[in-house]
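The data are set out underneath:

___
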Amino acid sequence: MTPDAAAKTLFFTSYTGLKLPLRLIGPLDPDNMDNRNTFLRAYFDETDRLIGFDKLVYGDIHMSHRYVYHPSGALKQAQIIVPGDDLSDIWFDEQGQRISEEHTSLDL
C-alpha cells in the first residue's frame, strides 16, 4: 500500500498512543525541515484522514504505517513495515476491533 499521488503530505515530530491509527503530534513547518534529523512524513486523504506515515531518521525510512478504512470510517487494515525486518498486516472489523494479524519477515 502506497499513498495516492493526491495525498496531502504534512510533517510531525512524533506520535502518541498505542491504538491504531497512531495519533501524530508536533506539526512541523515544511519550510523549516533543514535541521531535522528525525521526523514523520504523514499522508492524508481528501477528508484529512491519516492514511499513512513514514518515520525518517537521517533521511532513511525506519518505519512505515499505512491505513485503510471501512466506509463507516473505522480502521479496516493497518500495515506496519520495518525495512529489513518485519511486515505486519492487521485487519479490523466494521466496529474497529482487531480480527486478525499476519507477520512476514523481510530480508531486504
Summary: The mean pLDDT is 92.
